[in-house]
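mind reviewing these tokens:
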Amino acid sequence: MTDDQLHFMVECMENWFFADQESLSKYFGKGFNKNSLTAPVNVERLDKENVYRQLRESTRHLTNKQPYSKGNDSFAILENLDPRKVSSKAPNAKRLLDKLQNISGLN
């Protein structure tokens, strides 16, 4: 096995959400508190428990949805993230996306 055949998720997929906070804001709508989230630098270095706490905190005053729930929200958010934003703030995600583009021929 080579390095380009093995990819690990760093901490949890929710870390990637912090790279595209505009998508989070759009998904959750009114009452979402973006100021409760850490500014995205290298989102792969964020602590898992802190990520979940910040997601709960930023969504506790929503008017149209319930606060963040991994089971109810995570995949809907993930499918709407901008991969360019995630790649710019998550080096391992960039490596994975580059590899997928390479093998798909969509360079």
Q: What stands out?
A: The chain has a mean pLDDT of 90.
